[in-house]
Here is the input.
Amino acid sequence: MKVDFYRHPLSKSDAAAIAGVLDTPFLTTGKVCASVERQLEEYFGVPYAIMVNSWTNGAFAVLLALDLQPDDEVIVPAMTFIATANVVVLAGGTPVFVDVDPGTLLMMPHAVEKAISSRTRAIIPVHLYGQMCDMRGIQDVVHRACSYARRPIIIEDCAHCFEGTREAYRPGRHSDVAIFSFYATKNVTCGEGGAAIFNSEELYQSTLESRSHGMSALAIDRFSNGRYNHWDMNRLGTKANLPDLLAALLPQQIATIDDRLPERKRLADRYRAAFKGGPLRLVDQIDTTVSAEHLFAIGIGNDARDVAIARLNEAGVGVTVNYRSVPELHFYRRQLERSDNAWPVAKRWGNETLSLPLFPGLCEAEQDYVIATVKRAVYPLAAS
Ligand SMILES: Cc1ncc(COP(=O)(O)O)c(C=O)c1O
Here is the structure.
């Protein structure tokens, strides 16, 4: 049997939404994006949303809007996808890595408290695998740091968590901005894309500009009222806007995302039940959290992870690694000049973890095959 790591939920029926955009004269950021923005504002209960063409470019636009200087620090977790840290470097700031909780792999308020200083401009908690960080706790740490001349802003990395909650709050509740990814494998996808939701009008307005080269008007507004309107450039920006052609794939997925979560949860629970009591390390589930169940990561418990990947691939099971510890990667090792053990939890997990197939549409026979293959091929490695 062959079980892909991921199969997207889109089908030919979604082509009608794209055809609808082709029928209009406007392909890029326009009315469809505007309507998805209203949909997101309503779903998350926030005043402002902006569609972007990836999480990465959305976060880059937000950080450009902050006008980061080289001494400005941004606190990021060591266990995340590289994009979380890379955008800080791209925007001219300095990432400060903090280690994560050994059970949940999430950034913890006490780690932020230790790392925060008058140089901190922003903090990027990452809702890894679908479980939200303690946003209330992180916001309290920031409030306690209010004596600094500039309050650090909180940017939630929600690439793994669209529909999850913690203590019943959603992303965007305890932060200045929360950024989503609609990349091909995400729970909501349009191939490449993303969105940022804001509580602060000031940050929203400046990101609206930095998303489009710092221009004061979007293309759709430059040609409104049947005539050409001049625009000005107020700040340096990037090109991070999402075309309507891709945004057209989103409204239906957003409308049904909560109905699709039980299926993800059922599959994740089946894995958890099957591996309970076995030699693998599983991610701790927080009682007060409804996980978006984006990824199902397991830990082998030793350095046999790459042998495990080879065995699973040989048996036709698609797997990935989410993630190796970011400060251990060559680029950051060269930059950081820190001792090897500064982020021991992220380093250990990054050396031992791999992720198994998890997506609505994974059928029980396929999942049973993955479970049986893990037990046959990976358990002996994990136990040794
Ligand atoms: C935790 C995390 N942050 C950021 C990103 C970047 O998202 P995008 O590909 O939309 O730029 C990803 C993508 O996989 C991610 O997993």
Summary: DSSP finds 14 helices and twelve strands in the chain. Residues 54-56, 80-81, 83-84, 126, 157, 159-160, 181, 183, 194 surround pyridoxal-5'-phosphate (CB under 6 Å). The chain has two domains: 12-252, 259-383. The first strand starts at residue 48 and ends at 52.
